[in-house]
Amino acid sequence: MNIEVVEVGPRDGLQNESVIVPTAAKVAYVEALIGAGLRRIEAVSFVHPVRVPQMADAEEVMARVPRVPGVRYAGLVLNERGLDRALKAGVDEVNVVVVATETFSQRNQGMSVDDAVRGFGVIAGRAREAGLGVTLTVGASFGCPFEGEVDPARVAELVRRCPEAQEVALADTIGVGVPSDVRRLVEAVGEVSALPLRFHFHNTRNTGYANALAALEAGAAALDASAGGIGGCPFAPAATGNIATEDLLYLLHRSGVTTGADLPGVLAAAALIEAELGERLPAQLGRAGIWPVTGP
Amino acid sequence: MNIEVVEVGPRDGLQNESVIVPTAAKVAYVEALIGAGLRRIEAVSFVHPVRVPQMADAEEVMARVPRVPGVRYAGLVLNERGLDRALKAGVDEVNVVVVATETFSQRNQGMSVDDAVRGFGVIAGRAREAGLGVTLTVGASFGCPFEGEVDPARVAELVRRCPEAQEVALADTIGVGVPSDVRRLVEAVGEVSALPLRFHFHNTRNTGYANALAALEAGAAALDASAGGIGGCPFAPAATGNIATEDLLYLLHRSGVTTGADLPGVLAAAALIEAELGERLPAQLGRAGIWPVTGP
Q1: Are A284 and B205 within 8 A, CB to CB?
Q2: A195-207 pLDDT, tens per residue?
Q3: By residue range, what is the domain housing residue B71?
Q4: Domain holding A160: CATH number?
Q5: What's the domain of life for this entry (chains A, B) (predicted)?
């Protein structure tokens, strides 16, 4: 069995850290990740720098990261202005977020869900015309910090309304999901869409790795993770971030699932960004050690 | 669906913390746990105080904890001297550890596996005669820090040789297991024993909660956890401890599994021991918050 691991540390990870990491360190982080065999990297966000100052150097990052055959870079895009920047910066794919609930959509993107869906259609159409890959990420698919429970049928309805997507990513933005939620979502979305499914988990309440395995078992094609587990949760400031790439790889590889990525290499990338951020990161493998001990 | 959660914070948790917690605080922790609806508590260890000074006050703890109808206290016992203390102290059940590998058995208990199996028979016989419950814990069931991989057949063979047990606990002492290991162990042990299975997971490499769910799905009757996630791993000093009771309850309850325990109550117990230990504990729910928000 095989699954694609999408490295989101440089984008979702660093975006939610209070430290603003210099461009050179971001590029070094990306280089280390590529060295570790990761082939799909969400590297930047084209959200307005006033809202996300951590990503203000998106163009510069994209200009400096190595272009390696087989490596695809994604950028997060929320509107046409962001898409213009993404096209100019030369990403390979765009990740466009539509939030599942009205309140969160208004607070996160300053627009209604209907407007976000319409916007998605325009962005996706233009991006595909330009030859870019297009991911629809449904934010707050597992629960909303403002509205509480989110019905999987509501998520499925959103997916149905965004047929321009080439991939659907279901995001547990606030880290509240459990494996039975994953299965319900896969079922609901599968009724309206045959697109490959990708999952985005935060380990905010220690359910992220169980969810990842549940997604794999339910047929997901890809899983997001961040080397070091960086990122945090914007709605629970003291909580941990994305599931960590190294801990996910340990779980997957020991479960007999291949990823193409190299665990010691990811540990090196995580150590690099840990030193840059100057704080103890949520990933555990770096402290506990690979087992049985392998590598040099 | 229902599963029993065995609270091991007062024993395995506090035993692996560098701080020695005063008896009164241990008793308050136990009281808070009982207040949270936990009904089976591994409260003390009767290992020699020179080896585990954190548990030197076992007798005093047992003399001071409340005796509440329906609440059962367990004590860890490694030899007959420990059993004598356990009998005198008035625990309801003993947890006797036999380690799956030769090297670990020698280093942990100073005896061969054969001697440990013989010792188990003697201890279990005497304990059952005295009316105590007897758990066989197979240490390092998922892997050994000295010998590496552990064949589930080896674990099953140990279980077969200890028919005096009334319950079998399979311990991932160093936190290396994954859900497929859980399933293999359940299958292997199930071939030689019909005893109820209990699992003891450490979240050392972030696989603990996925393992807990896998154990539940494979038919386990009980899961160990420690409020606060205290404990650490003696073989990876920087790593986290037992899976946390509150994070486990969140996962189970949201998965539709009942435990009889009360999440806000466990959070209160964890806050109490966190203040006592004076360090940020691995449990996440206290920082992230129950979701959707419940309670007073």
Answers
A1: yes
A2: 999 999 999 999 9
A3: 4-288
A4: 3.20.20.70
A5: Bacteria
